[in-house]
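Page header: ASSEMBLY MODEL / four components / 320 residues total.
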Amino acid sequence: MSNEQVSSQDANLYAINNRLVFRLFQLGNTLDRMSSKELGVSPVHWAVLGALSREQVREGMLFSDLTEYLGVSRQNLDGLLKRLERDSHVIRLADQQDRRAKKVMLTTQGHVFWEELQLKIYEFYRQTFEGFLFDDKVTFVHFLNKLNNGMKNTHISPKE
Amino acid sequence: MSNEQVSSQDANLYAINNRLVFRLFQLGNTLDRMSSKELGVSPVHWAVLGALSREQVREGMLFSDLTEYLGVSRQNLDGLLKRLERDSHVIRLADQQDRRAKKVMLTTQGHVFWEELQLKIYEFYRQTFEGFLFDDKVTFVHFLNKLNNGMKNTHISPKE
DNA sequence: TATTGTTATACTCTATAACTATA
DNA sequence: TATAGTTATAGAGTATAACAATA
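Prediction written out in full:
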């Protein structure tokens, strides 16, 4: 990842890729650490609460839709929701139409928690994005999306 | 994180921040998953091996320098190195000057492993970065760096 | 006393397989 | 049979505190 020795002539092309992935790795770690430390929630919890706090899912969101939205597995979402239920931020209710399905929604306490969290997030953004122009952020999001798609569709043949 | 309801007039500014952090969160997850699945190593192991494979640290790297380089705590680096030692990719030797300190280096087997990994990483990059211009990557790295610094220096006052 | 690295502990997140209850 | 969600298990990473050896 940080190795810049390549036996071909496009060492620079390779090096920029290394640098990019290494920085991405570091930034991911920083997000994990800062989110937990400064906001008091992990990025995944943040994402779950954010998803459930939206107006359009005020009556709850299907468990299955939530796994797809967040991109985490059913099993792991179950664990996440267990912790959020333990903290009384979330409840799961059986769906009326399909009794196998569950609707996930914020509790009143979860809404209050989220609103308080918003204040911190607002300040978090203010400091974190200081010096970024609006258009820079748009470009940045575009790059993140593009890389995410490119990476998700990458497949290395299993031959060593 | 994905909530776009704000009670002020700069909802768009807030929304782009949300989108950016949510995409960053997703890309971090994708990197974790794809690295482990397609390359057979976690991003952290990748980073450790990459750091130790560099020419300039052929005689080993101080444990303490490695924690700083990677940005992980001493305790966690110890755990990482335990797993890498278990797989015979790395060894730790007492430093001669300062006998409290340890030098970390790749084993011969670790070097072989890294070289084989390089072939996969090369292909990983080829697919993942398809469609990215060189200059886009330079800009992207710049943004990642800038955001990392901004985020690391963010401090929310502990008052709820 | 301070620093280097280690041990111990607990928690979070992830991946995988097997299970249940509905459909 | 297939799908929705759960349980079980193992591994990996992280944070924190306390410790031994050396400086």
